[in-house]
Specification:
Radius of gyration: 22 Å
EC number: 1.1.1.86
Order of helices and strands: EHEHEHEHEHEHEHEHHHHHHHHH
Strand content: 5-15%
CATH topology of the largest domain: Rossmann fold
Shape: globular
Cofactor: Mg(2+)
CATH superfamily of the largest domain: NAD(P)-binding Rossmann-like Domain
CATH architecture of the largest domain: 3-Layer(aba) Sandwich
Organism: Sphingomonas kaistensis
Pfam families: KARI_C, KARI_N
Largest sheet: 8 strands, mixed
Structural class: alpha/beta
Pathway: Amino-acid biosynthesis; L-valine biosynthesis; L-valine from pyruvate: step 2/4; Amino-acid biosynthesis; L-isoleucine biosynthesis; L-isoleucine from 2-oxobutanoate: step 2/4
Number of strands: 8
CATH class of the largest domain: Alpha Beta
Strand order of the largest sheet: 3-2-1-4-5-6-7-8
């Protein structure tokens, strides 16, 4: 794990960075770079709903191809499924030997983008949402990030990737920069999203809530027990680790966990997790993402409507 003491800021001195996209990561990265004295411009398509926000925060706004022209580093921070079309649009504007940056390895790992051979292809992937990256930076702290290089055309790709991580604040105390690869970052990130934190955990919360309500438990109480306490668990694990979390809870809770957990997470669960990982090692997930985007997200829209109308959400709203 590299910190500011290990990271040389010099490779970014005098360089111009173009940030394409101003959403979750785009805004945070652009502002962190700007506040660190790096020349930043933002690329958005005409009519973008984010345009006024970019201008209000004092950043230069240009169409994507113009923002990329003559920039030393062009970082693609729009949603993954839109990046291939954006790259096609900006490629003629990329100067020879420029660096193309990413915050996620999906498009490079699955071959959705085939970059020009003269470009450095780098990735700096903060391990958290952009809002937290920005907040930590303004507090003088940092967020752990992965750095990777997929194509080193100039021989300077690694120093550039690491200095970019430094500029985001990821080398500060309490954080650090871990060398990785596009493949490792992509598989681990997508696996977490599909099989652990963002996929399995919400489904488990919903199932627990439904089980209690079906057994006659008041929905508000079921929500408090099965959903609200998740933050207590997360805070304990963050502060003390899983072993330390077990030491901090009551004997009753610890015994219940030791008896109930293995009944839910068994060899069958682990095999289904391996199946998720196998889908990711192939290109099945990448194809599904492209198909979903091409159809204007019917599955995601349906899932959002279903979640908003659920009994669990009604219980949450009743407690506000």
């Amino acid at each position: 794990m590299l910190t500011d003491a290990d990271l040389d800021p010099a490779p970014l001195h005098g360089r111009t960075v173009a940030i394409i996209g101003y959403g979750n990561q785009g805004r945070a990265q652009a502002l962190n770079l700007r506040d660190g004295g790096i020349a930043v411009r933002v690329g958005l398509r005409p009519g973008s709903s984010r345009a006024d926000e970019v201008r209000d925060e004092g950043l230069t706004l240009l169409p994507p191809a113009e923002a990329a022209r003559d920039a030393d580093i062009v970082v693609l921070l729009a949603p993954d499924e839109h990046l291939p079309a954006i790259y096609t649009e900006i490629e003629p504007s990329l100067k020879p030997g420029a660096a193309l940056g990413f915050a996620h390895g999906l498009c490079i790992h699955y071959g959705l983008i085939t970059p020009r051979p003269d470009l450095d292809i780098i990735m700096v992937a903060p391990k958290g949402p952009g809002a937290a990256l920005r907040r930590l930076y303004t507090e003088g702290k940092g967020m752990v990030a992965l750095a990777a290089v997929a194509q080193d055309a100039t021989g300077n790709a690694w120093p550039l990737a690491l200095t970019y991580a430094h500029a985001l604040g990821s080398g500060r105390a309490g954080a650090g920069v871990l060398r990785s690869t596009f493949e490792q970052e992509t598989l681990s990130d997508l696996f977490n999203e599909g099989a652990v934190v963002w996929g399995a955990v919400p489904a488990l919360l919903e199932a627990g809530f439904q089980t209690l309500v079906e057994a006659g438990i008041d929905p508000q109480l079921a929500y408090l027990e099965c959903v609200s306490e998740l933050k207590l668990l997360a805070d304990l694990v963050e502060a003390r680790g899983i072993a330390g979390m077990r030491e901090a809870i009551s004997n009753t809770a610890e015994l219940g966990a030791s008896l109930g957990g293995p009944r839910l997470v068994d060899d069958g669960t682990r095999q289904r997790m391996r199946d998720v990982l196998d889908d990711l090692r192939s290109d099945r997930f990448a194809r599904a993402l492209s198909d979903e985007a091409a159809a204007d997200y019917p599955r995601l829209r349906a899932e959002r409507r279903k979640a908003a109308a659920s009994a669990l959400e009604a219980a949450r709203r009743s407690l506000l």
